[in-house]
Amino acid sequence: GERYILGGPSVTHRELAEAFARGFGVPVTSRGAPSWLLAFLGGAFLAYERLGGRPPISAAELRLARYRIYHTSEKAVRELGYRSRTLQEIVDRVVQYQQVNASQNKKGRP
Description:
Layout: H1 13-24, H2 35-50, H3 59-64, H4 74-80, H5 87-106
Helix pairs in contact: 1-5
């Protein structure tokens, strides 16, 4: 009955966004949202959700984006020999997956 976190590298939201922007070859924005704005939008999205709306990101996710929350796979590494991929490996795989799916969708495949 053990539980393990099988995660990847600990990076900030900005580092993750920058890595994917580079991977997809799109410009990296230099602006970040201030914490107070995330808190405000989180409250607004929560009200919208309570009225039956479906915002593009949940209020809880938006409010949590204000914090630096990290989890560790150290227990899985120690006890199971787990090895996570590097951030670059993760980005490369996602970009490749998206490119394959985009080309399949253009060919009329579901």
